[in-house]
Specification:
GO terms for molecular function: oxidoreductase activity. Pfam families: Amino_oxidase. Pathway: Carotenoid biosynthesis. It contains 16 helices and 19 strands. The protein is α/β, with parallel strands linked by helices and about 500 residues long. It folds into three domains: about 5-40 and about 225-300 and about 440-489, FAD/NAD(P)-binding domain, CATH 3.50.50.60; about 85-215, no CATH class; about 305-425, no CATH class. The strands form five sheets. A seven-stranded mixed sheet has the order 7-6-15-16-17-14-18. A hairpin with a 5-residue loop joins strand 6 (about 85-90) and strand 7 (about 95-100). It binds flavin-adenine dinucleotide. Flavin-adenine dinucleotide binds next to helix 1, strand 14, helix 15 and helix 16.
Amino acid sequence: MSKIGIVGSGMGSLGFAIRSAVAGHQVSVFDANSYPGGKLAQIETKGFRFDAGPSLFTMPHLVDELFTLAGKNPRDYFRYERLPEICRYFWEDGTRLQTNAAPAETAAAIASELGESEENVARFLREIGENYHIISELFLDNSLHSLSTWTGAKALKGYLNIPRLGLFNTMHRSHAKRFTNPKTVQLFDRYATYNGSDPYQTPATLSIIPHLEYNIGAFFPKGGIISIPRALHRLAEELGVVFHFNEKVSRITTENHTATGIETEKGNYTFDYIACNADIRPSYTKLLAQEPQPKKLLNQPKSSSGIIFYWGMDRSFNELGVHNIFFSDDYQGEFKTIFEDQTINDDPTIYLHISSKVEKSDAPAGGENWFILMNVPANEGQDWDALVARMRKNVITKLSRNLGVDVEKHIVAEDYLDPRRIEARTSSAGGALYGNASNNRFAAFLRHPNYRKAIKNLYWVGGSVHPGGGIPLCLSSAKIAAKLFAENA
Ligand code: FAD
């Protein structure tokens, strides 16, 4: 049995802590915050409840797996349902589209509303599922830095399929070649934002992302997204993991480039192994300042961040579903503004999520809890007070125009997050939601690995390391790190 200390209690940490405890190790987790889950926080105001971070839950089996590993029934800890509807789309010219859980229904809707060939859409959804399985075996389920990943039958299958994986094309060009209506292209391009990237730059390989929603499903946990880290925290404690909340780590101590312990504001702790769940940039510059810095990895462009408005509304809107998108008319311009100009434009694409459509207690009777997210650049010192005020005005104008109602009159409770606040609350560099962006074809190889021989006994989990950000990939990072740990230790 080894003593393991973990910096941070985000999803990557919770996954790694549970796996390590199940393997018989003694685990301690330190977080600067007062709660487990990092970006999975919640906001409560005037009778409204909002999940502050993620709103879309995919791949729930990765959470269930942790309970099963521990010999527990996941349903004794948390429940979720598959949503019958995926998303409602709104365009400025009045075009409306609803996509549904059944791929055949989505293909039929895209055919009837956007004029695509139904068979072509259905084939696309099937193909991204097939590609997902090839890619996940190579990139998502394994370390890219282990020889075993690149040898054997699965790797050979991957090599043989390289031409169909879209490594040498951009996501946008691949969709534009495939579909006739620019709106369909826009709809599938949108999925680049699920890892904070630009569809006009990110490789077509990432076209697999909608597979998660369209072929596996969009899910909603009972009690909201916050119930996921709460359930995992409960399981971890039952397995003997000790949590130190409100205890910020100031240094990971090393001797001869080997991690030896953790220093916090409250004390010094010695461990056999450390896992770091904090973003790689502050981890190296602050916690590991004594070690050589992997400059190439640290200098990659950051993923997008978000401005999020949390609005309690005093009425409900039948034309809205759980997930809604109001598209910008100039999608390419929007991404150029974010990634090249590092600012926001006046016609942003708006994502509007309403959890009270499913979880009635999230809003007072007759009202709705609106979570409104716009993609924005990571914090590089922009004037966020001015940008938030401008964005609020533009969002009210756009939603009012599309819904035919002065939405501002119905806001009765209000809060917001911007990149500065996200950074302050979770220590993510620049408030980037997904670590580094994947805006070039080598991005997967330029993510920080889950273990580097340069600092021994130190493992890395979470959204800024391999395989990437988002709840499912953070849980995968924990799985890969635990596998490497079992091999090395
Ligand atoms: P994080 O959540 O980043 O947590 C890291 C933890 O480490 C924090 O608790 C922090 O306090 C702690 N920490 C850092 N430094 C220290 C230190 N020095 N000492 C002690 N503690 C420290 N993902 C989805 O799957 N679906 C979505 O719909 C989605 N939408 C999102 C919307 C928003 C607004 C945001 C912010 C994120 C969204 N994401 C979404 C992304 C997802 O939330 C993240 O990728 C994921 O939660 C990151 O988890 P993590 O393991 O990297 O840890």
